[in-house]
Amino acid sequence: MSAGDPSPRSGAFRRRRAVSALAAVALLGAGCGADPPDRAAGAAAAWSVPEPDAGRMEPQVARLLAEARAGVLARKDSAEAWGDLGSLYDAHGLFDSAETCYRHAAELDPSDFRWTYLRAVASDMRGAGADELIALFEAAGRLDPGYAALHARLGEALARHGRNPEARERLERASALAPESATIQRMLGQVSLALGDLATSERHLLRAAELEPRDQSAHSALAQLYMRRGDAPRAEQSAARAAELERINLLDDPVYDRWVFSRAMTPSRALARARIRLRDAEYGAAAHDLEAVLAARGGDADTHALLGEAYAALGRTEEATRQFERALALNENHAARQGLERLRRAER
Amino acid sequence: MRNAWGARAGLAASLFLLGAPGCGPEAEPGAPVAGAPTSRPWLVDVTQGSGIDFVHETGAAGNLHLPEIMGGGAALLDVDGDGDLDAFLTNGGHEPGARGASPAANRLFRQEAGGTFVDVTAASGLAGDSAYGLGVAAGDADNDGDLDLYLTGYGADRFYRNRGDGSFEDATDRVGAGAPAFSTSAVFCDYDADGWLDLYVARYVRYDPKRRCADAAGRRDYCTPLEFEPEPDLLLHNDGDGGFTDVTLRAGIAARPAAGLGVVCDDFDGDGLQDFYVANDKHANQLWINQGGGVFRDQAVMRGAAYGVDGRAEAGMGVVAADLDGDGDVDLHVTNIENEANTVYRNLGGGLFEDATAASGLVPPTLPLTGFGVAAADLDLDGDLDLLVANGRVLRRGTAAAGPGDPWEAYAEPNLLLANDSGVFAARADLAPDFTRPRGVSRGLATGDVDGDGDVDLLLARAQSTARLYRNDAPRRGTGLLVRAFDPDLDRDAVGARVSLAVGGKTLVRTVSAGGSYLSSNDLRTHFGFDGAVRPDWIEVRWPDGRRERFGVEPADRVLTVRRGQGRPVP
Fold first, then answer.
1. Architecture (CATH level 2) of domain A266-347
2. Residue A223: which of B301, B348, B399 has the nearest Cβ?
3. Which end of chain B is more exposed for a tag (fewer CB within 10 A), N or C?
4. Is the full-model pTM beyond 0.80?
């Protein structure tokens, strides 16, 4: 997933706001089990608000969730409040609770793409079955059929469930909407490989590798493809290239980024997010995450070094130097030394 | 073979007759079962009264140390050469840093005439091992006709040489594997075909007991392996003089450290050389293809056996290598964490694999569960291999509330019986409620014909709980045959040999190996089920050096030993 700015990065989010009443009616008529909004608002008073075990949570997470939950309790007829709580649960891996909240949010405002879509994503994360996922993603798709990530996610889920022809169809729709997405090209290549269509697979995988040369998965799949063709030398070459790389998933998904990815507060999640942001050259956001990690749990050499890298890229040389030095104080053999030497060379 | 307790061939199965369906202490008669039983249960818990009164102890004291959530292991092996299977179970120990002697101990149970088990740990020389135990591998490392034991764990591994009478002496110093490490599953296998069994030891991570971890909501929980540096696996070459040499570096195995949990040895690409496959936790699985000359190359990526269908590294735990689709080559089944279905890698021939998880029907039943031990066995003797999976979480259930009560309940899950129907597997909890209904933190799973009735029984190890022994009572859709492939020149089972049974126009293929599953060791005899009304044509053995021989089979045969040199050579 690509790191998201606090604000949406594409027009999809705004398009969602302009959803037609027709689509909302279509969703309600599709047997999603939702009450019409007015009736849902009336029923909302009786809905219980999920409350996962917060006793052992990190205090800042527990506080954040408690505040959002209080927001729902104060406005049980607010789709926004339910959606907000759902996305916070989602961001912290509490998928069952998140799904419940998203479902209520969508019942209260069936025209809002966000909650129906995020419910589908959360269902996938908790391991829902293929038919359930198709129904959920299709419901979201009726609200915003032009949202490429939706088709890509559904395609990937269908492939996991072995429904490869349907998966390819979904991914082709995603590709038509986002032809420059390396991740969608790679997914298409993988599905085509599973279908035994080696020529199509190769075309997509080569395109994926061209669009995102750093992605391991495209090269891994190419290695497999060449081996199936009996071309062992090329297979070896691709496997060797893959071994030098890491898996990168750069699906442009501003709704998920804005409401889920960027909202995780635990240090471990913030650290993981910071690594992705550094890789994506989003240095300001990465520095923000790393500062939060250090404030929450103190420093280790890796975190100081990463923050040093972020500061260095932002031109904040003195602060970068300090962070590299702290990393080296904790571990004198740390690779932060290279960063420090790089800064000193630049100063000279 | 020497035998301190006297020969007891032709054992009675009275123990197994003692067990009644649902007699296990954890049977829950009122719990819902998917589908009503159509006949008598396939697996019956006969632990009570068996003499196997083993309780695994994790040593957990609330500090959530990683080794606690990983054990224990189980072995079914004939330690005393009397023809029946004995049982060995590994135990945990103190948590890291704790002082004093731990009450947890590995235990050996010898099977007596009548089918009951007696704890012989004290007399066996296996008592007093203070290491934190995890896995067990059995193999005749010194070609003296008895099975030796390699024990893995957190801290240091141990090697015990069988004196020939079922008692053991600590020979760890001859192996050179006593250095501190975090070892998991291990397998004996003669990778260089020199007649001496070598040893592959999967190793996990460089665990730091001071590291504290949390789940996505910041709640304290066990760490994932990605918090630590992975540790390279260990390959020990058997020098034939009682000692082993660490050849990890020379063999190329050290080139790619990964968090190894399960390992199997087989000839995956059909070139006659023994290869290794390692299930790695959150790292790409490895397929070490034997290049000859003691060198291996990891070709899992290009051969399609490294990742899940979406190209992601999965949390591999246990692994079994077997011909799951009956096409004559060796497929792989890897158990994974929840929200990752257990993976079937189907061998397309020549060691090229495709992910056949969904086509095998395994996504829905395995997706919500965390699998560890795994076995492929023809429970109902219909000619195809069913799957058994031991499950138990490594991370708390998200909704589980903290509080009084059994803290392990948050990690407990039911086990799976996946019945094979023409290569598609279906979860059939109804067929074996004793095995599938009780929830536990199951880990090691060993298979073998414990009661000598020609079918495969099970021994299950569970974290912080009792081990369970299951008798196979499946309604027979055919007849069972156990084949022991024995090499008189080596005075031991022909580990690595490929045994084929031609019957009714089909050829069933099995490999002689005690390896597979998770932290466990299985009966070395190969097992076949087939239509009893049809006379088998022949048994063919491809010995580890590639030579082939055929042997006749009588319809009445149930347990058959085929000896190298006594069959008809096959060009």
1. Alpha Horseshoe (1.25)
2. B301
3. C
4. yes
